[in-house]
Amino acid sequence: MEAITSIDDIRAEVRSLKEGDRTVAFVPTMGALHEGHLSLIRLAQQHADEVVVSIYVNPEQFGPGEDFEEYPRALEDDVVKCKEEGVAAVFAPSDDIMYSGPQFLSIRIDELNEYMDGGSRPGFFEGILLVVNKLFNIIEPDIAVFGQKDIQQFRILQQMVKEFNHDVELVMGAIKRANDGLALSSRNAYLHDEQRKLAPGLYRALQYVGKQIRDGAKNVELLLDHQKNELEAKGFKIDYLNLFSFEMMDPVSNPKAGSKYILAGAVYLGETRLIDNIIIEK
Predict the structure, then answer these.
(1) Domains of the chain
(2) Is 166 a catalytic residue?
């Protein structure tokens, strides 16, 4: 297997895959594939006849001073992993292919990106919507699979599919974790040994607060403040740690029965930013 780099070639390949009313599932990635990505590929295979994976580190979703240049890239290894998983085609375009010439158009997001990662990383989700919109137009998949770890991304993409009338069904795959609970991420490679031992503390904090909420705890802010203090004492720097509504992605202090919430956090260990979440349905 070789990665396909041109838009015309991947379109031709997908047309061939769809012959005979066969369905195609699409898994967009930024590469440096790990078991979390592979679990999404396997989930995609359960929903469609063929799977296409993209590998592209999208510059439009990185802000000034973020790790675009340092982001891990391992295209040859990634293609081998895709072949081993039975992926039908890999699309790995260059920046010149994805953003040819001056870009005069952009996408604006209202409300859904005010908090969580959208509040911490201005322009982040606009960049994601831009590239996923392009990829959907190029691949035209029947199914697209994204991970729960990036749950705000999933919710915003749901809205994009609805408002832009993309003919694609979105599927969310569960977070894949290491044995100690740490959510798998390409950025985990940045952690040194001591930081790696501390890193699962974020998930443990989410688990503790989540159990208290499910058991009927009323003072969510107090629970969260306590966990923030605990994490900071261990060396974490808190970006955010809060309970958010699933529908609007805004903070909630008084969860109500019959609603769906996201308990989510983003923290720094040294220069490495980690995110995690759990879904709570009251």
Answers:
(1) 7-173 (3.40.50.620), 186-277 (3.30.1300.10)
(2) no
